[in-house]
Amino acid sequence: MLVYLGRGGRDYGNSPLKVMRRQAWEFQAVVAGRIAPVFAEGPGPLRASRLWVFPPGHPHGWHGDPAAGAEVVVFHFPAVAAAFAEGVPARGHLEVALADEDRARLTELAARAAAEFARPHRLTHLRQDHLLLELCLLAAAPDDTAPGAIPGHRVHPAVERAIQWFECHLGENPGLEAVGRAVGASPAHLRRLFHESLGCAPAEVFRRIRFQRAADAMAETRDTFETIAERCGFGSASAFSRAFKQRMGYPPREWRRGLRPAATRKGRRARHG
Predict the structure, then answer these.
(1) Range of the domain at 176
(2) What are phi and psi of 10, to 5 degrees?
(3) Among 20, 117, 161, 184, whose Cα sits 20 to 30 Å from the Cα of 27?
(4) CA distance linking residue 215 with residue 30, whole number of Å
(5) Helix (H, G, I), strand (E, B) or coil at 170
(6) Within a domain: 144
C-alpha cells in the first residue's frame, strides 16, 4: 500500500529537509537537477539522475543546489519483499544511477499513481503492488545478472486473479488451497507462477497484502486495532501487534502515530519527501 507520494519541484537547496527517522521504506529519485541525502555526520555530495532507497528507521534528510531547484519523485511503502530488503546493507541504503529511460519511467509511474492516490478503486492495491515491484527491480538493477534475478515482465494472469481474490477475502485469512480453488489452479502450480512472476512465494505476497491493508486502515481511519486485525486476517489485536512489530521493528500504535499527520495531507499535490 502506497502511503505517501510526492512529485514535482523541490527547493532542497534553500529549504532542506532535516535529518529524521521515517517510518516507511522511502524511494526518492531526482529526475532533474541535483539533490543528495543528509546524514547525522553531514550532507552527501549532490547527484543528478539518482534513485535512493532508505529502509524504515534510517535517519536522513535532503539537501540540494541553492542556485537551482530540482524535480523529484518520492514513494513511501510500509513494507517490501524480504528478498529485496535482504539486499539493503545493514544500517545503510541503496543509491542507483538512472538512465534517461529510467527517469522517464519513474515520472510516468508517479503520474499514474497520483491519479489513483486520492481516488482509489478496486484494483488500486494490486497496481500499487506492481509499482513497488518495479521500483524494487529498478533499485536492484546493478545485480540483475545474479542467479535468480528477475527481468522485467508481465505478471501471470492467474497470479493477478489470485491476488485480487485474496484481497476480497482478506478477513477470512484463506490458505493457498482455497485461493487455488477460487482461481482454478493447484497450490503447486500457483507457487511456481508466483515465483516466476514476483520472485517470491504466495505466502510472502499475501502476508505483505495483509500488512499493507492494515497500514492503510491505520493511516486513513480511526478503527481499533481489534477491528483492523479482524478485517485483515490477523485474528486478534495482540496477534496483529506481535506480527507488525516483528516485521516493522516497532508496534502498530507507534507507526500510526507517525504516519497519521502525513495521511491527513494526502490530498495535497505539493508535498515533501
Answers:
(1) 157-262
(2) -140, 140
(3) 161
(4) 27
(5) helix
(6) no
* Residue from 203, 196, 166, 198 nearest 181 by CA: 166
CA-based nearest residue to 212, from 259, 271, 155: 259
Provide the Cα torsion 86, 273, 22, 55; round to 10°: 10
Q: Do residue 169 and residue 100 come from a single domain?
A: no
SS (H, E, C) 92-111: CCEEEECCHHHHHHHHHHHH
> pLDDT tens for residues 122-148?
677 778 888 999 999 899 865 443 333
In a domain, residue 146? The reply is no
For 178-207, the pLDDT digits (tens) are 999 999 999 999 999 988 877 778 888 888
- At residue 43, what are phi and psi to the nearest 5 degrees? -80, 150
C-alpha cell at 190: 500457483
Q: What is the pTM of this model?
A: 0.58
45 and 113 co-located in one domain: yes
Give yes or no for a contact between 51 and 96, defined as CB atoms under 8 angstroms apart.
yes
| Residues in contact with 12: Cβ distance below 8 Å, sequence separation at least 6, in sequence order | 35, 62, 63, 64, 70
As for how many domains the chain has, the answer is: 2
